[in-house]
Amino acid sequence: MGDVGYQSIGYPNLALAIGFVVLAVVLARVERLGLEKALVIGSIRACVQLMAMGFVLVLVFEMDRWYHVVPVVILMVLVGARSAYQRVERKPPGLQAVMTGSIAVAVLAVMGPVVTVVLRLEQWYQPQYLIPISGMIIGNATTGCAVAADRLLAELTLRRDEVEAMLCLGASWRQAARASVRAALRAGWMPTINAITVYGIVQLPGMMTGQVIGGVAPVEAVKYQVLIAYMLVGAVAISSYLTVRLACSQAFTKAHQFAKWVHRGRPQETAVR
Amino acid sequence: MAAFDIRSVTKWRFVPSGDGGTRRVLALSGVSLEVPERSIMAVVGPSGSGKSTLLRLLNRLEEPDEGTIGFAGVPLRELDVLELRRRVGLVQQQPAMFAGSVADNVAYGPALRGEWSATDLDRVGALLDTVGLPRDFAPREAQQLSGGERQRVAIARALANDPEALLLDEPTSALDPGAARHVLEAIRRVSEVAGVTAVVVSHTLAHARAVAQWAAILVGGQLVEHGPADQSLAAPQSPQARAFIEQAAEAGAEAEHDG
Question: Fewer CB near the last or first residue (10 Å), C or N of chain A?
């Protein structure tokens, strides 16, 4: 990085930015949007949460033992899986464990080669690299898993007659669920594909913006961002694939029937008279 | 010999309760019934009497909570379930058509097992003959067909597996009288030509009488009458069966009157 510094912000100067929030509150009041309270609370929360995270990062970045850094990553995986789980409307049994495992495998599979082969870090657990990159991967994997699992159940319910017609003709549950699995994976992967497709055109991704402001030469920042984009694709693909496969197997029995909980959650058909 | 041997079968079902949850109701209660081989049995009864549930147990789409079911002398649980479903076809009430042509639909089962595919137009055509559809239906988009045509494609699709038995859930309920006649004709032909045992769920007595040699009457999940169709459907012994038959006869007369 060397001689190119960045412009430090003083706290009084930062306070001036509150003026933007005040402007929004005044607009909300005039237009009777009823959003004043939400604006104030949101602004205060953003400040407090980020400050807290700043102090945590100071501590984390000072960590110089792998057994300090790895638990932080594990905690991030657990929190991510929890949030993915909560975003799914109809939950197969064991979904939280499935999502935790899927995201953990994705983090290992993507971080492992990158840390050892691509970045060639002196110490593989250097928190300045491991923590933010894991964070981005986990964030995207979380969204992918939640969207894919949600879509899988919606498809299986919607296509229930078609799936059962296939089962009735001797198809295995894997064969009968193929179209639903495909739709779920497409839905899970699309947000990430869409995001990286407009990188550099519509959007300068957060990490790159940060690095550039921090004084990193743009070309170096770009290389990092390309690396991140490809890692996100891999992580989302792996985690949502595992989640959908495992969740789908929970939707059927060994005898190639819909599991009872799938039947139970759907509206009972009323006879056609 | 009996094709299906149903013994003391009980099945609970979950239905939505008023408060947004689900509650357990008895769909079938201690049902014992033998379906003779190479015959057509009609299962009749009021809506919600467990008819469709019974069919879903016969090809193991669902399991009974109590009791056993045998097919051709072997308990269902001892058979490979995918092989059982090849041997026992089930045609849904309003059959889902798969994306693709009529031929794709008809050849679905054999193609799964790598036996033959939709390009085998002789086989597809022969099956369309059996269900009374013109052979030039083969390339048509299956999801564009009318209700009666779908019903017959679904029967052809089940027959493509060369089954020993066919389970039909209300095959005529959504059809106009002309289409219903074609479907009933197809069922009769399948039983006679292919020697397939058929279990036909119906709530229309006239249709049951038109095809079945045997009849079973389910009321509230209990088997209240079974025997030769001409006796059981005309002069049933049990009071519940008599009440259902009278009611159904009135409803049938009304429907005919309404046109």
Answer: C
Mean pLDDT, residues B208-237 taken together: 94
Q: Which residue has the tokens 């949101």?
A: A42
Sequence ranges of the domains in chain B: 2-258
| A168–B90 CB contact, under 8 Å | yes
Q: Work out the burial of residue B117: count CB atoms within 10 Å of its CB; fewer than 13 is exposed, 13-18 middle, 19 or more buried.
A: middle
CATH of domain B2-258: 3.40.50.300
Nearest by CB: B85 against A169, A263, A271: A169
Instruction: Give pLDDT, residue A5.
Output: 65
Q: Is A78 on the interface with B (CB under 8 A)?
A: no
**pLDDT at site A265:** 58
Q: Is the pLDDT of residue A268 over 50?
A: no
Give B179-206 pLDDT, tens digit per residue: 888 889 989 988 988 889 999 999 888 8
Q: Which of A142, A155, A157, A123 is nearest to A191 (CA)?
A: A142
Mean pLDDT of all residues belonging to chain B = 92
Domain locations along chain A: 1-62, 65-264
User: Over 60: is that where the pLDDT of A41 sits?
Assistant: yes
Q: Based on the number of CB atoms within 10 Å of its own CB, is A140 exposed (0-12), middle (13-18) or buried (19 or more)?
A: buried
Q: Are strands B165-169 and B197-202 parallel, antiparallel or unpaired?
A: parallel
How close, in Å, is residue B195 to chain A by CA atoms?
19
CB-CB neighbors (< 8 A) of A175 in chain B: 112
